[in-house]
Design brief:
Length: 318
């Protein structure tokens, strides 16, 4: 059964949508700060990268998503550590959400609503991670968080000392154990500012499955860390065509959400969607797809992840 990946579907559905207007931020206030005057040691790199552990939540209502270089889509993003995540949007925030990528402690999902053929792709985290062959998605959508700069380094999993690259960057590779074998994660790190510029993930056979090129970093004093505000991701499934996703963030609210608040991270009601269980789909099972029965209800006019107030580091203003 041939199937277009969900990100490609999103791009096709909204190829005629308008461009998103991302607010400009004062450059001086968020200019990345030089952390090193000499090449950092592995311990120093670990300390800086692991400052991300102090980030318990991220929120932005100023996001654009451009799949496969087709068109910018207006979106909002919210994440609460560890697995509560939602990226949703469409033609306009005022018209509600036409796509959603989400996760909670048990499941992740992707929905696309075009009126005639709404689709819901989903899987349990544990079942998906135990599969070696994955169609459509080579990694969980939660990998987006690492692409957005929420990385951690375990010094006991580092594969040798940092490598100095011809472009002046430093390259550090680590083991990434999974249920299907040990992946290799390579981080390209700026030796002056300490933030990552690129992340590459390879499966146990050495095949590249995901990559992220990071740029336009902004410094957040409350956590002592610079985060990228432009990320170009590439996902490479085993059999399906690769997908490129260009994400731009206008600004973040950091640690402005209650980590104990579960609302807003529920698996969508399956009624009205063509449902694709990615675990069964990866196994080639015919019951992976459930046909549409009833059209789903329209989403609210304002996404539940929206906020009003200053769109960067600080308390949430409602």
């Amino acid at each position: 059964m041939e199937r277009i990946g969900p990100w490609a579907i999103i791009a096709i559905l909204f190829a005629s949508s308008g461009a998103t207007c991302i607010p400009k931020r004062p450059n001086a206030e968020f200019q990345p700060k030089a952390l090193f005057t000499a090449p950092p040691t592995p311990d120093q790199l670990v300390e800086v990268i692991n400052r991300s552990r102090s980030i318990q939540s991220l929120q932005s209502n100023f996001v654009t998503v451009n799949p496969n270089r087709m068109r910018n889509l207006d979106a909002s993003l919210v994440w609460v550590r560890d697995r509560k995540f939602k990226l949703s949007g469409g033609i306009s925030r005022m018209l509600g959400n036409n796509f959603e990528v989400g996760s909670n402690d048990q499941y992740f999902w992707m929905t696309v609503r075009d009126g005639s053929r709404p689709q819901l792709f989903f899987a349990r985290h544990d079942e998906f991670e135990s599969q070696g062959v994955r169609r459509i998605l080579p990694v969980s959508p939660l990998w987006i968080l690492e692409a957005l700069g929420i990385s951690e380094l375990d010094p006991y999993r580092v594969l040798g000392p940092p490598v100095n690259r011809p472009d002046g960057m430093m390259e550090l590779s680590t083991m990434a154990p999974t249920a299907t074998g040990t992946y290799t994660r390579t981080m390209v790190i700026d030796p002056k500012f300490g933030y990552t510029r690129q992340i590459l993930l390879r499966d146990p056979s050495g095949r590249l499955v995901a990559s992220a090129a990071q740029s336009e970093h902004n410094y957040y004093a409350s956590v002592g860390l610079s985060l990228p505000h432009r990320v170009l991701m590439q996902l490479v499934p085993v059999m399906d065509p690769p997908t490129e996703i260009d994400v731009t963030i206008g600004g973040y609210v950091i640690n402005g959400l209650d980590a104990n608040q579960p609302a807003g991270f529920e698996l969508p009601n399956q009624n009205g969607y063509e449902v694709v269980n990615l675990v069964q789909f990866n196994q080639g099972l015919p019951q992976a797809v459930t046909p549409v029965q009833v059209a789903p209800a329209l989403p609210p006019s304002v996404p539940p992840t929206a906020y009003r107030g200053v769109p960067w580091d600080g308390p949430v203003v409602r």
